[in-house]
Amino acid sequence: MTINCTFRQLMKQSPNNLPEFWSQKLSKNIAYLQNQVKVDMKSCVLWQNSKDWHVTPNPRVVPTYFILMPIQGRVMVNTDRGKHYIEKGRFVFLKPNTWHTLDANPAFGDLEQISLHCHLSDPAYSPLNIDALPEIHVLDHPEFLIQKWLALVYQINSDFSWGYRTGEIFVKLLLEEILKKNQEFDFHSVELDDRMKRAVDYIHQNFSKEISIEEIAASVSLKPVRFRNCFQEALGVTPKSYLINLRLKKACDLLLHHNDSIKEIAYKIGFSQNDYFHKCFKERFHTTPQDFRNNKKTIF
Q: Which of 99, 111, 121, 211 pairs as cysteine with 73 (C-beta 3.0–4.6 A)?
């Protein structure tokens, strides 16, 4: 007998317990995924191309997590881990800044594929440690997930705010499937060193103030250049990007749950210029703060 259910279905049945047939490590990982992992959608696109089209024959990197799944045709993915063909029922999951090439195989006819870009982070907004996970994955129920994915493409591209929450759920559903097939993986196998932990704590305690990179570096007794290098190596983003991302996430909470004006919210989270807050918010979430607030009943 095959047991197939999602974390959300199980939690509806038994809110405080995970199934007995899951190992302790898998239960811990899926609980962490659903309750702690943060997903920020960037894009979700359906590509349709003729059979003589080459996807990306030259090496490239993207700064986001990259998920690609053909629903017709075949694509060869080449990374430093090797070459793999993916087709319907298989997908590639690459971490940020992974060098890769993509090339269509004309023998399999026209190519139709869905690509998704997102940011994934832990509660401290540091990138997830997924180095131990494979890059190519097989879906047990491809038709179900393909239909969900196509619906997500429509939602993301018709109204990004509408698709934002749906995208988070969908990405976690894919990650859940990956975890079930890689039960030895552990989200907590690598932790930040003490100085970077203290730097993250300092940012979280002072994000609403006008703090500089020099101040954060001084709080952990490092020179600014050395601090920037260490921080980016450990967390995958620059200290400035980390600070702005944290402020924007705080802005989302305030926009959804408080009635302060947008200008007041910008000031509360550390933006001294309202125009700059709007610019950063739209670049990150593809919508304005006011539209995000207006659509909150649809998003959540």
A: 111
Task: Please give the Cα distance from 10 to 53 (Å, whole number).
Answer: 43
Q: Is the dihedral of CA 133, 139, 145, 150 positive or negative?
A: positive
Q: How are strands ordered across the β-sheet holding 111-121? A: 38-49, 111-121, 65-72, 90-94, 136-138
Report which residue type is found at 260.
D
pLDDT of residue 191: 63
Please write the tens of the pLDDT for every residue from 146-196: 888 888 888 777 766 667 778 888 899 899 989 999 988 887 655 667 888
Task: Single out the residue of 130, 172, 137, 200 nearest to residue 39, CA to CA.
Answer: 172
Task: Break the chain into its structural domains and give their ranges.
Answer: 8-180, 194-299
* Burial class of residue 184 in the structure, from the number of CB atoms within 10 Å of its CB (0-12 exposed, 13-18 middle, 19+ buried): exposed
In CATH terms, 194-299 corresponds, of 1.10.357.20, 1.10.10.10, 1.10.10.60, 3.20.20.60, to: 1.10.10.60
30-47: pLDDT as tens digits: 888 888 888 888 888 888
Give the pair of three-digit tokens for residue 137: 């994955």
- The pTM of the full predicted model, rounded to 2 decimals, is 0.63
Domain spanning 8-180: CATH superfamily: Regulatory protein AraC (2.60.120.280)
Cα angle 88, 99, 160; round to 5: 60
